[in-house]
């Protein structure tokens, strides 16, 4: 078989290419492969092999008390790996494949290292066509947290992965820029209530018709979930979120980069700015968030000032990411 690889990086950096069969071959040999999803790129390994999963933690520098999301090929297949309650089945019929992750009681086939020793596993069916084709080639699910060093800005392109982890893996499956650009929402079921453990690309409004919805903040204790560390999604440059005009007044003596929804204020100390959506569209803003943060992080400003979004739709999830990016 002849493979056409679109390699833009030299050794020891990872090869970037579009070859699904080659990615599958590497995963079967317990190598790490970065894969595209509709949310962000994931750092994938065989979820049923503890040694392969350990490589994820080592490559990312991720603490092993932070569990991983397991990607499966279909909602029906979730039953192979976990006990799936009826409400999760109803949600999966509507939202899977898609950006919704379910925390459910795991079966013994899932190694403890995947769940940080917990009894629950986070399962998701990705919607990206290349991720789905890859899973169809495999006879195991994929543990795949975001393909970036732990705590840093999530990657939404193959180039972002190469910048952060290119020397830690062999292959990056290039599926273009992630269409959503924001991680999945993570939910658990508690007394017939949908408990949102991580806000993401499936909004509370979308879930409300199915059951009562409760949002559990990342500072709360309870069901273990991936992506709930207080400090996360952080650029190298210090980031502060809030009312943008108040922040500009407080930081008027510094060289600032500004992250704004649409209405860019003027100030002589602004050295760079990113408008997330000139149309004030929070879906577009979510798609642009991580790429905009990366660009502002590269301009050499003293600080990044980020505007908090309206508390509606995708605004909740964007504000969650900004809050974690500003945590110290």
Task: Provide keyphrases for this structure.
alpha/beta, 12-stranded mixed sheet, globular, disordered N terminus, 10 helices, 2 domains, 27% helix, DHBP synthase, 328 residues, Rossmann fold
Name of the CATH superfamily of the largest domain: DHBP synthase
Beta-sheet strand percentage?
Answer: 15-25%
- N→C terminal distance: 50 Å
Tell me roughly what share of residues is in helical segments: 25-40%
Just give the CATH class of the largest domain: Alpha Beta
By oligomeric state, this entry counts as single chain
Low-confidence sequence ranges:
1-11
Main β-sheet description? 12 strands, mixed
Question: What is the total domain count?
Answer: 2
CATH architecture of the largest domain: Alpha-Beta Complex
Give the helices and strands as they follow along the chain. Answer: EHEEHEHEHEEHEHEEEHEEHEEHEH
- By DSSP, the count of extended strands is 16
Short summary:
The chain has 328 residues and is an alpha/beta fold.
Can you give a write-up of this model?
This protein is α/β, with parallel strands linked by helices and 328 residues long. The chain folds into 2 domains: 15-215, Alpha-Beta Complex (DHBP synthase); 239-326, 3-Layer(aba) Sandwich (Rossmann fold). The chain contains 10 helices and 16 strands. Strands 1, 2, 3, 4, 5, 6, 7, 8, 9, 10, 11 and 12 form a 12-stranded mixed β-sheet that branches. Helix 1 (20-28) packs across helix 5. The longest helix has 16 residues, at 282-297. It is globular and about 60 Å long. The chain starts with 14 loop residues before the first strand and ends with a helix. The model is unreliable at 1-11 (pLDDT under 50).
